[in-house]
Amino acid sequence: MLNFLRHFAGVKTDQAMQAGLEALVRWDPKGATEAELRTMEQHLDDLGMEVAQARGAYDREQKEADAIRSLLNQRMAAAEMLQTQLSAEADPIRKGQLEKSLVTLLDMLEDMTPEVERETSEAADAKDFLGMLEQTYADAGAKLKEARRQLERA
Fold this sequence. Notes:
Blueprint: H1 2-27, H2 29-88, H3 92-153
Helix pairs in contact: 1-2, 2-3
C-alpha cells in the first residue's frame, strides 16, 4: 500500500510539473522556444565534445595501426634480405645461422599477424564511429540553425 501511495504521489507530481510547463509556454511561447533552442545548443555542445573525444580515439588507434604495420613491413623486408643472403651463401655453417634467423623472423611475423589485423580493425571501427558522430553533429547543427532562423523570422 505504501508503494502505491509513493508511486501515486510521483505521478501527481509529474502531472503538476507538466501542467506548469504548459502554462509557462502558453504565457510566453517565444521564451519557451528560446529555452528549447538553448537546450538544443547544450546538446550540440555535448555532441561536439563527443566528436572531439572520438577524433582523439581515432587518431590514437590509427597511430597504433600504423606503428604495428610499419614494424611488420620492417620485419618482412628483413626476412626478404635474409632469404637473399641465404640463397647466395655457400658456407654451410653460415647458411645454418641464416636459416635459423629466417625461421625465427618468420615465426615473429606469423605471431604478429593477428595483432596487425586487430589494430587495423580497431582503427577502421574508430574511423566509422567518428564519421557517424560528425554526421550527427552536422545534422544537429543544421537543425539548430534552421530552428533559430525560423524563430527570428517569426
